[in-house]
Amino acid sequence: MNIDQDMAKAIKLAQAGKLTPAIAILDGLVRAAPSAVPVRYNLALFLLMAGRHTEALPHLDRILAAQPGHSPSLFSKAKGLMALDRAAEALPILERLAAGNDPESLLALGNALRTLSRMEEAAQAFHRLTRVAPGFVGGHINLGILLVSMADTQAALSALDDAVRLHPGVGELHALRGQALLRLGRHSEAIAALEKALAINPALVPARGHLLRAYRETADWDNEDRLFAEIRAAIQRGEIKGQLPLSTQDALFYPFTGEEMRRIAELEVAFRVPGQPRPAVHPQPKTAPPLTVGYLSPDFREHATMHLAGDIFAHHDRSRVRPVAYSVGPDDGSDWRQRMARDCEAFVDLSSLSDRAAAERIAADCAHILVDLSVFTRYARPGIAALRPAPVQAVWLGLAASSAAPWLDYAIVDPVLVPPAHGGHFSEKLIRLPNSYQANLAWSPPGVAPSRASLGLPDDRLVLCSFNGHRKLDRATFTLWLEILAELPQAVLWLLSPPDLARQRLEAAAAKAGIDSARLIWAPSLPRPDHLARLPAADLFVDALVCGAHTTAADSLRMGVPLITAAGNRLGSRVAASLLHALGLPDLAVESPSALKALAIELGRDRSRLAALRTRLMELLPRSPAFDPAGFASHLEDGYEAAWNRHAAGKRPENIDV
């Protein structure tokens, strides 16, 4: 046996990607020469490369027992621990290695701290890396990614401005800078940065998604249509691997089919939770009832989730369900957060814990069911639910699409939202509630609305409105609205004011269609109570087509403003229809854009019919199941019990009709 020759042969095999025979050779050498550190180290290294991390660690430990300062083994051990989701054990090793300002060690330290949700310390590590090794591009990229994810957007932009000056030819840095500029509403600069990123590196798939968003937010529909077609074709051809063209949440704003939405969600699952996470400590819930139901969300704060579901938790029948809030988002000090803590049996802040530590806490609480209220939205932590801390797991409310997440057993929906023909769009089994899936706060009579004059509205004209965010304003929707205005010459259209560039383009599009741009009336953003108070000044809410009104639909209806919608072929375009059916006004939910246009014109020309509709809406609201949180909570409990009973009986998840 010639150790040097055999080791050289093994290294050559590994370099050719033939790890199994390389490992076999080195394993034999280690048995013959157990004290040969280079052989044992290469064996450990190849085991790590093969994903056999658990087998690699004892070899590294044996080297370190003999040579405690062997830096390559220390670093490799830290990498192995990180791969096994044992970041807390890797951290002291990386802190020791990073003390010497080794760039790779600093990078790994920052990533370990990020994994442990110690974001400020991770940012410090990446900042330190960019100072001691400004030529190390990975430090700048990781710092930018982290600061953008922390919503420290101004700091992110400052860091990325420095980075692109140092590394002007790195497309990833321009893309991150464009993302930060987009968050800050500096659209022209964002578009320039993102276009430059793609000119440098056309393979930067995420930059395409951010650029698509920038085009939408500035109503640059020609460029949007071109880029959307490119992204869609790449998704259909299955060309995108390991990158996310746009998030599932962002995809809702574009006319993807239900199947395409599911494919995008699958890409997001692979991107956000790579590999097969090792399950958390196996939960052993206590005998039910009551069921311990954990609600996992970053949005227990001033957020649309609480504007919808905020009344539900206090109405849970404690003999059936024991609600526990698991927060992974920022503490904004709002009344909503305090109320959530008051209305649940427990309020647990998991935001500072790693995914594994958070999952183990949920498992230790013996949750029967975990309901993820966000999945992939901002600040969401999908890696927690991916560790399976509860025996039954569901998604509800926060994601208007299938999650495609294999760890989520059920999606909570309703029959209008997801009719039988659309069930195939979902990876989850469906719990169908009898009315609308969208929880809403209890209804109370609206107060006196401000005068139209104070809102910049004409007293004597028909006021159509759509208070959807401007990201929902696509070419087809705006064209439809202009066609309605053309048929109703006495009408004006009241919209939330978009960015200046979008406003200019929308007014130009109106003028081109023969509509006086003065008939577009722009509403400024207001605090929520003031926004709700002004809604009754409108006569009719006309919904967007591709991604319709959700919270905004509930807001308008509760304030007595009739709403009409075209129920599309995906969940995101059917929420308003779901609410209208629950209210007892199904005729206001039509099935096509042409039918929506016809209905808007009919109602606009018959003011007495419109007034009668408004009266009817006000009669229905006090007794409507759409605004009855106690009844809604009871139906949720029915669904939870049915799902749990299937699990307790050893049955697989199946569709459940409540």
TrEMBL record:
Keywords: Glycosyltransferase, Repeat, TPR repeat, Transferase. Belongs to the glycosyltransferase 41 family. O-GlcNAc transferase subfamily. SUPFAM superfamilies: TPR-like (SSF48452), UDP-Glycosyltransferase/glycogen phosphorylase (SSF53756). One of its GO terms (molecular function) is protein O-acetylglucosaminyltransferase activity. This is protein O-GlcNAc transferase. PANTHER family: PTHR44998, UDP-N-ACETYLGLUCOSAMINE--PEPTIDE N-ACETYLGLUCOSAMINYLTRANSFERASE 110 KDA SUBUNIT (PTHR44998:SF1). InterPro entries: OGT/SEC/SPY_C, TPR-like_helical_dom_sf, TPR_rpt. It comes from the Bacteria. The keyword Zinc does not apply. Pfam families: Glyco_transf_41, TPR_16. Its EC number is 2.4.1.255. TPR repeats lie at residues 103-136, 171-204. Residues 287-437, 450-634 form the O-GlcNAc transferase C-terminal domain. Pathway: Protein modification; protein glycosylation.
